[in-house]
Amino acid sequence: MLDGQMYPFLADGDFEWNADRTEITFKIKSAAKWNDGTPVTAEDVAYTWATHVKYNTPTGSANTPYIENIEAVDAQTVVIKAKLGEDGKAVNPLLVEAYLSTNYVIQKAWTEVLEERVAGDPTALLADPAEDVAYSGAYGKYFADDTKVVYIRNEEYWGQDASMWGKLPAPKYLAHVIFKDNAAGTTALQAGEVDVSQQFNSNVQDFWLEQGLPISTYLPEAPYGIGASLPTAFFNLNSPGLDQAAVRKAIAIAVDYPTIIANAMTNQSATFDQVPRSLMNPTDGEQALYDHDAVADLQWAGNDIEGAKALLDEAGVVDSDGDGWREYNGEKLSYVATCPNGWSDWQAAIEVVAAAGKEIGIEITTNYPEWSVYQTVVTKSDAPLPEEGYDIFMMWSDGAGPTQPWGRIRKLLSSEFIGMPSNWNGNWGQYSNPDADALINAIPAETDEAKLKEMYTELVNIYLTEVPSFTLMYRPQSFHTVNESVWTNFPHADDGTNPPVPPLDLTDGWSIAGLYNLTLVNP
Amino acid sequence: MKHTIQQVFRSGKFVLGFSIFSAILLIVIFYPMFVKDSPLAILGQGTFFPPGIYVNVYDSMSSTAYTLNLPDAAAKRVANKLSEEDRLSIKEWLVAAGIPESEIDTTDTAKLLGQWSANFDPKKSIPGMTNARRNYFIRLNTSLKGLLSTEGATISQTNPETNELEQVDTVNQKDYVNVGEVANTRILLLGTDNFGRDILTELVAATRVSLQIGFVAGLIATLIGLTLGLLAGYIGGLIDDIIMFVTNLFTVIPTFVLLILISFSIGQEQRGAFTIAVVIGLTSWVWTARAVRSQVISLRNRDHVNLSKLSGHSIVHIILNDILPYIASYVIMALILQISSGILAEAGLSILGLGPRTTEVPTLGLMMNWAMIYQAHILGNWWAYLPVLVTIALITFSMNLMNTGLDQVFNPALRD
Question: Over the stretch A206-229, which tens digit does the pLDDT of each residue have?
């Protein structure tokens, strides 16, 4: 997550593309075992894919456009054949790679048991609670109800093999407690009932500064965590005036971002001075992908009222009837900024956006519909957004992952989502730019790093010039606050792990490596 | 009339309630004349600044410096950065770093800090030390830098021509500024909230809006209750049956549930302060109607009413002239109670997130709602919610006191 690299875990060494980039080959570790003691084999990987295709699961339907087939060459070796386009090249090599790290391998023997149980019915197959599933991880189910899920360590886990850690992860049980709301979660963290908290705790520094509790975050000082996603304000490009890049940019540069970050996020986001605005998240891996200097002139730190006014004056968007508000084509610029009701940090951010409008002669009012209404309006991309009420609206963007930042950029800029009746991908403002589309299509097949950097820089350039949407803050993949009353040695910046254990909740991706480092405070 | 008022003001309870309420009213009226900031203006960059006087640091550097020789200034300076607990923590570190315990004297600040700066290493890992503890030592180390220095601090500025730092001034340790002479100071008597707004200004504006909501809601509820109660009680018969049927319907549905359902179905776009007031009024008239009806029933066969009937007066005339004056004192008391319960209902609704739209006007309930969302009650930021609670309590307390006072005057059974 932190450096944009994939680390093999079940696989024995890195995967390899063939010379034409049409096939990926990798090996499964010979030590890898299911909890029933049988080895994890290439056949399990191939059968998992075959099952996805056979029952047309969401994973199957999402990947069949890119993956032709997955085959087992021998007990350990797997080959993934990419779907080829008319030019004989893989349609999207990046998404083929992403399959490797975003899908579980399911035991073939167990899958066959399941198929027999559901008698080939795809709906029943997907709905099966899988109580008896075979697993290759270190923990299995121990207890589950509405308030908590508890896992118990598999004492036979193959991670004890000398080729792996040579020992079991430290905790015998992992309990995931489900709280009613953030306040309940915060109280439990304070009381030491929670070791790792992945929720937003406002003013998290008060825990140690004011209350002297043994609580810490990944970074010792603000922003306390590593941002991974970019909560974004989208412009409705069909609203009168917002079809003009000058108006969009003027609003974006007038917004007071330091206040959004200090008040709405209680400083738990990097500022735009620290991490200049781009399409990349603040992790080092993504930041290295574009040329910072090339787009430095297009950057804005916010609160630039005079700059915004100048931009509007230059574009001829002026107040011609003297009522204090600017007009475009004789129509007063008046917008509604919105986000779902009850999403408190977003609401606080939207308030600051609206305040910026008043400063530059554009009327922006706020409105907070219920989420049920909001989501149906925003995700309906087969028709223009409503004329009123959704001129500037907040949605999320992708966090960290194996296809990033390409996946995030696609979802922020690509016009391919326009026309979807239920669009849960992105570009909700319905921005369309053939140059951006061409770059987004070309990136997955590109392997030359210099060329890639050039293409990403060009995309950032388009994003900062055209301003189809603008990021209001950075947000971690999951918040990471730990209470060290019982356990210590949780992942934190510069903790000496290599590769670094990311600040997740120790159950996801490479962060599980952190479980082996935990020690008791008072052994 | 004059006599009645005199009587009312002889009741201690009423006078106390009335003075509290008037004081609140006066503050609400006069405060905005002196502090002209918009109550929703975001002043603070950051959340929940504690109450106090905020003095501009930049301006105080250029203000006239007065030298004061205060005997314990240095000791206070040290104590502010280095508490007893910090000293013990330093000792703990030093012992872990291998200094013999006998050589450590936590009362000798100079020696202790000398040992500390000679031995502290942020990278050193001490067995059993948590990351939180390590962060604490690093913070402590930073704050202790230059603590025992007797030199002043130098103020430098970048010369725009040469781009070099030039010394402008020095600040000595015995320099003081007079707060009155600093160009920019701001008193935040109740600190700021999660948006960085001045809570006192917001609280005053919110009290006004909440009083308005309570007043409108109380007026509507009392008017409906009074009208229906008078009609049902005086006319009786079928009209009474119909009105009591509706009233009973409303009685069995819990008012607050009804309130929640209506507010939710209106949707946030339409939920202004006035709408909320109307909704509260429309759902809380029931008990007034029932009480007025029973009072009227006991009145309608009195001699003077019958006499009026015989004289050929119309129903409206009789109700207004022969019935209403006898229950007027009760109606006034009911109105006061309705206003106070209207304020409480708004607070209750807003705390659930169903109050008026957040951003147009502040209300007492909305202030509580945001303080709760940003966990002020968990983090101990009392100034964000306690003053609001006290205000709500004072308003309702004063109104209830006035009510009890009135009751003592008007209810013969309670008269001393």
Answer: 889 888 899 999 998 888 988 888
